[in-house]
Amino acid sequence: MQVAMSATPTALTLVIVDDDPMMRLGLTAALSQQSDFTIVGEAMDGHQGVKQAQALHPSVVLMDVGMPGMDGIEATQTLKAQLPEIRVVMLTSHTDETEIIAALSSGADAYCIKGTDVEALANAIRVAASGAAYLDPQIAQKVMQNLTPSRPKEAGGEGLLSDREREVLALIVDGLSNTEIGQKLYLSPNTVKTYVKGIMNKLVVSDRVQAAVAAVRRGLVD
To answer: Residue 161 and residue 67: Cα distance in Å, rounded?
Structure first.
């Protein structure tokens, strides 16, 4: 769905991509109050979001991470490969470190938590539009923790598994492929692959079978 509005010469044009219509409505209403923002389009999934960006060439795309079909990470990778000049601000309700790293690796320019107050989100959009990077303070803390040199790995790293990684691990135990896991959790296969790699690193195993065995032996899944 496209929302056409006249833009002032200095306005930043925005496309909002989120599968939740109420979230799109709320973001449109809130951000339209900023004098330098013009909402030029909306999309309900990654495929539509990429098409909107291709057609409208906005300054910034606000991209939800978790969406059915093409998720925000895959959509950002596609968008950045085709239109690298368009800035992408990722929106998520999760602070999972694996998801954060996957999102930033996709080429996103900013990463914000859903529920961030409007002024903070507007600032993130302006920072991204200026060519700089922006991380929500909660996200920055997670990234810094991930970059901090760690002690040598020890068996028993399951205590470091995030809730999302445990969900993925349970589906690995059930014998699902990356594609099937992605369909269940509304994640792209590439995102699932990133989670699987993180799980294997934390469990100190070298393949999916070993991860499944470790999960059962250590009681990590029901």
So the answer is: 22
